[in-house]
Amino acid sequence: KSRGNVVNPDDVVSEYGADALRLYEMFMGPLEQVKPWSMKGVEGVYRFLARVWRLVMVENQEGAWAISPQLQDVPADKKLTKVLHETIKKCGEDIEKLSFNTAIAQMMVLTNAFTQSEVRPVSALVTFLKVLSPFAPHLAEELYAIVRGAFPQLVPAGFVADCTWPAYDPSALIEDEIEVVLQVNGKRRDSITVPIATAKEEIEALAQANARVKEFTN
Predict the structure, then answer these.
(1) Which of 79, 129, 143, 193 lies 20 to 30 angstroms, CA to CA, from 137?
(2) How many Å apart are CA 61 and CA 123, to the nearest integer?
(3) 3-state secondary structure at position 16
(4) b or e along 140-163 (b: 16 or more beta carbons within 10 Å of the residue's beta carbon)?
(5) Are 132 and 48 in contact (CB under 8 A)?
(6) Residue 117 gets which letter from DSSP?
(7) What is the pLDDT of residues 56-108, one digit of tens each?
(8) Which residues fall within 8 angstroms of residue 14, CB to CB, at 6 or more apart?
(9) How far is CA 12 from CA 38, 43, 84, 138, 201, in A?
């Protein structure tokens, strides 16, 4: 304080919100280490929370927030399900170890997976909010209430903070597909995703039938 390098948390809360302050303090690294404060780091975490907000909400033509049409009552595909259950497992284990920074990094991975998905399954998103709640409680509660208002038949009443921690499915974590890179003359042309048990001959046939490969092999 005598050196004039104090960061007033009230100022950070007023500009970025309490969740951003809370999340940045956990994201800085292991708790036992001394770390320099960075407002750019706060801004980065604030942008992550904004991406989470936009998983549920979109800005309409009038400039008001409305629930996203991408949020739908559909089952999650295999890829999203795998990332979701990886997140449940890792965040649960990291909380026990007080490794909050790596838990937040995994939630960022899951947020990217939701963003890249054409539709956002309500059940998967609500599960994500349960994991996010201990880290960013204000945002999680607001989004939980909004989603429940739009899908009351899918989302239990009450607060997300009162929900039980979700259990991960070990079978959802099994890698049953691989990406095969297709090269012609030593240069990557495309890639295909095939089941792990696919025979070599079948992979070769799929590679030769690939449109990009055909361009270079005709």
Answers:
(1) 79
(2) 28
(3) helix
(4) bebbbebbbeebeeebeeeebeeb
(5) no
(6) S
(7) 999 988 889 999 999 999 999 988 999 999 999 999 999 999 999 999 999 99
(8) none
(9) 11, 10, 31, 15, 60
